[in-house]
Structure formats: C-alpha cells, structure tokens
C-alpha cells in the first residue's frame, strides 16, 4: 500500500457522476475525462498518462438510483495508452468482480444519465 504522499487525487466525471481517483502506484497528477464506460472498465482521455500497469482506487460520489447520496469505491488498472486523433487515451480495467454491487450501480447510473442527456 502506498503512503498518503505517494497517492494522487483527481476529480473524474462519468456523465454527471463525480468521483475521485487515487493512484496506488506512481506519482504525479493525472487529470482525466471519461470517454466511455462498460462493466469491464473505462476509456479515459489523459493529458500525461501514468504508465500501463498503474493501479487506481476510483471513488465515485453519486446520487444512487434510490436518490440517496453515496460513495462507490472500485479498483482499477491502466491497461493501455494510445494516441487517438491527437488525444492521449488510456484504458482502465476494473479489478472488481463483474457482479460487484458498486460496479453494477455505477453502470446503471451512468446509463440512466447518458439517455437523459441524449433525449
């Protein structure tokens, strides 16, 4: 486990869902924006991506489907970095079981907000 000084906190947005990512390996600031989200992971746009293999603790403060404010914590890992149309993209693979309650709820909230924004 990395010390507090070795962790980096960043705000992240999934639709209107906000959260915080703590790097559990490496140092530096890695602000990112979520481009896509699935049950397996997320694709994010990064300015200066951490190296592949960097592990993250993702904390999302969300309004749950029941309307209550709650925090969902998930573990993830950077699995690839690539340049796409001038934007540095990284894949984050979730290190959570597919039936994780937090992952299931986060996906439901993201899908609901995506369709609300599209209509």
Fill in the CATH topology: Thrombin, subunit H
Look at the helices and sheets and give the structural class.
alpha+beta
What's the level 1 CATH class?
Mainly Beta
How far is it from the N-terminal to the C-terminal residue, by CA? 44 Å
Coarse morphology: globular
Tally of strands: 7
CATH architecture, by name, is Beta Barrel
DSSP helical segment count: 1
The major β-sheet equals:
7 strands, antiparallel
Task: Quickly count the domains.
Answer: 1
> Secondary-structure element sequence?
EEEEEEEH
State the share of residues found in helices, binned by percent.
Answer: 10-25%
Mean pLDDT: 70
Residues in β-strands, percent: over 45%
Strand order of the largest sheet: 1-2-5-6-7-4-3
Uncertain segments of ≥5 residues (pLDDT<50)?
A: 1-16
Cα radius of gyration in angstroms: 14 Å
Task: Please tell me about this protein's structure.
The protein has 119 residues and is α+β, with helices and mostly antiparallel strands. The chain has one domain: Beta Barrel (Thrombin, subunit H), CATH 2.40.10. 15% of the residues lie in helices and 49% in strands. It is built from one helix and seven strands, in the order βββββββα. It has one helix spanning 101-118, and strands spanning 9-14, 17-23, 32-37, 41-46, 55-63, 69-84, 87-94. The chain has a seven-stranded antiparallel β-sheet with strand order 1-2-5-6-7-4-3. β5 (55-63) and β6 form a beta hairpin.
